[in-house]
Amino acid sequence: MSSNIETHQIETRVFKPSKDFSKTSLVGSLAEYKKLHAASLKAPAKFWAGQAADLFWRKKWKTVLDWKPPFAKWFVGGQLNASENCLDRHLDGPRRNKAAIIWEGEPGEKRVLTYQQLHREVCVFANILKRNGAKKGDRVIIYLPHIPEAAIAMLACARIGAVHSVIFGGFSSTSIRDRIEDCGATLVVTADAGYRRGQTVTLKQNVDQALEGVTTVKRVIVFRRAGLDIHIQEGRDVWWHREAEYVSADCPAVALDSEHPLFILYTSGSTGKPKGILHTTAGYLLGAVITTKYVFDLKENDTYWCTADIGWITGHSYIVYGPLASGATVLMYEGAPNWPQPDRFWKIVAEYGVTILYTAPTAIRAFMKWGDEWPKKHDLSSLRLLGTVGEPINPEAWIWYHKNIGAERCPIVDTWWQTETGAMMITPLPGAIPAKPGTATLPFFGIDAAIVDDKGQEVGPNEGGKLVIRKPWPSMLRTIYGDKARYKQAYWSEVKGCYFTGDGARRDKDGYFWIVGRIDDVLNVAGHRLGTAEVESALVGHDDVAEAAVVGRPDEMKGQAVVAFVTLRNGIPATKELAEKIRKHVGNVIGPIAKPDEIRFTEALPKTRSGKIMRRLLKQIASGQAVTGDTTTLEDLSVLAKLKQGDE
Ligand code: WT7
Q: Rounded to two decimals, what is the model's pTM?
């Protein structure tokens, strides 16, 4: 019997780019994409060298790639500065007074920063960093609300060659301390507080707790956002606005080697200790810039909104580095999508005339649950392109997005990538690649993606296996900070000579990639291996189901039994009869093999702060084990308690 992952559900709907859209796109047909992609794989160095002309270089590189597996150096000998690429290069032309960031706070304040203004703010803050001891190579923690200062602080670090590590504002003091200790940070940038669902989040207080017993951090710079009374530790803490009075707005960007570290971003490994993913300057920036250009098909007058937080890689690549280096107008919104009401996003789209919207499937499912009436209240006709990222989007959510937000007119780019890949890897080009609901479609230029079996052999059409990348690419992670052995082990030891993504996938007859879930989560039922995505998609396809997660529980007979955790749509009572109906529904859609053995209704699913379901915890709960390992990344700890209660 094959150990490959099986496919039971084939989605057949195809959405071709409209002629109008294709006409104005950089890549206007599938044939053109195919030609360019093939050429990029045939001569990668030539391809990447050509693309690198999009960046502003202080000194041109000598060698495109120095590859000593698994360690890559890109554009060796070159020098540049990411902050200069995002700011200074726009100041000489018509973009000088163009809005770089349009920001709205959760309580409703509005700010617009032009490129000239943003440049000035970044220079001021870079000087503040220097005045407070930050030097090239030092690690700086940024723990701020979703306000322009988060981008300003990142770009200020990049300007002087300090390495930023942004920690999402929802993380606790323990998570902050772990990260500070791991990277040996010397400086922390934070705020008194931020806002979330009308409440203040006391960031500075969390930092104070995190720093107890920490010796590396010499300075904490505090931005005043909420006007709270906070503890200021003499000799350690300073106010951003006070410091600004002592410095000038003149801070030339330093020329940095291509491989100078740009940032460390922690991603929660499934086993516990977070991994500090290290990205460097030139390759990362290039990946972010060219995907922004081709995938968002960016036009000079777009108003572009990525709803992710700056604390995730999505925010790094597609709020800050990609769009700003491209001279785009970026919208930033601080708060929750349902504050004060479930139409906040649509209000914002209408008010600012957003043209490109990039969000996550988990958000789309929440909008579906809240009801179609909320987007209907607003004029969304400014939108021209939609995107998703973060997890497989179930076809039902895709269609809802297409109809209710995109008015059946906007292409949807379902972009597959990872913190580690730095930039989009598998994604439609909106004017060229026909979309199918639920697939990220085809690899981006220069990306050699494949699906292999346990022996590392490429599998045939519709056979599931491990998703790997066979060639290095510029925006790949360089290592796990301080842990080369773990870097090798986690990414380069599973399949010989390839980068292992950790994801399971299959390719259909058109070569499209369908992510079926994480390899570690694949179910093994009576000798059949099933990905989680397909079963979950079938579950949420039932009218009464809002969200679902499936995990395997050890079972003597079948190897694993399928346990489905299900949240119902508002007002639907959880009954035994309904559970039975839902089981049957999955059986009908996929086949008897995937029929959950058990349905557990729950009010909410345990998710990370970025909206990913933590199946590892559900596995433990489903098999009656104690929940162990890192739970600090959990969005709402009470969910865990409730799930466990249901267990008794
Ligand atoms: C994992 C990476 C990359 C930004 C946000 C997440 C899953 C991501 C898709 C997609 C199917 C997706 C994968 C991947 N994932 N995008 N379009 N379709 N799955 O970054 O936290 O590093 O997570 O998210 O499983 O490996 P991340």
A: 0.93
Task: Tell me how far apart the alpha carbons of residues 629 and 321 are, in angstroms, rounded to a whole number.
Answer: 33
Choose among 435, 443, 384, 445: nearest CA to 414.
435
Residue having the nearest C-alpha atom to atom 5 of ligand 1: 390
Decide: helix, strand or coil at residue 400. helix
| Distances, alpha carbon 75 to alpha carbons 258, 284, 316, 440, 473, in Å | 6, 11, 21, 29, 11
Measured from the CB, is residue 536 less than 6 Å from ligand 1? no
* Ligand 1 centroid – CA 245 distance (Å): 42
Residue nearest to atom 6 of ligand 1 (CA): 390
- The pLDDT score that the predictor gives to residue 269 is 57
**CATH for the 528-647 domain, from 2.70.70.10, 3.30.70.270, 1.20.1060.10, 3.30.300.30:** 3.30.300.30
Q: How far is the CA of 644 from the centre of ligand 1 (A)?
A: 27
- CA of 501, closest atom in ligand 1: 26
For 398-410, write each residue's pLDDT tens digit. Answer: 999 999 999 999 9
Identify the architecture of domain 19-463+473-483 in CATH.
3-Layer(aba) Sandwich (3.40)
Nearest CA to ligand 1 atom 1: 418
Rg for the chain (alpha carbons), in Å? 24
Return the HEC string of 324-383: HHCCCEEEEECCCCCCCCCCHHHHHHHHHCCCEEEECHHHHHHHHHHCCHHHHCCCCCCC
d(CA 197, CA 145): 13
pLDDT band at residue 637 using 50, 70 and 90 as cut-offs: low
* Phi, psi for 409 (deg, rounded to 5): -115, -35
* pLDDT tens figures, 215-237: 999 999 999 999 999 999 999 99
Look at residue 7 in the predicted model and tell me its pLDDT.
77
Does the beta carbon of 389 sit less than 6 angstroms from any atom of ligand 1? yes
Q: How far away, in angstroms, is 533 Cα from ligand 1 center?
A: 12
Given a contact cutoff of 8 angstroms between Cβ atoms, the answer to whether 344 and 317 are in contact is no
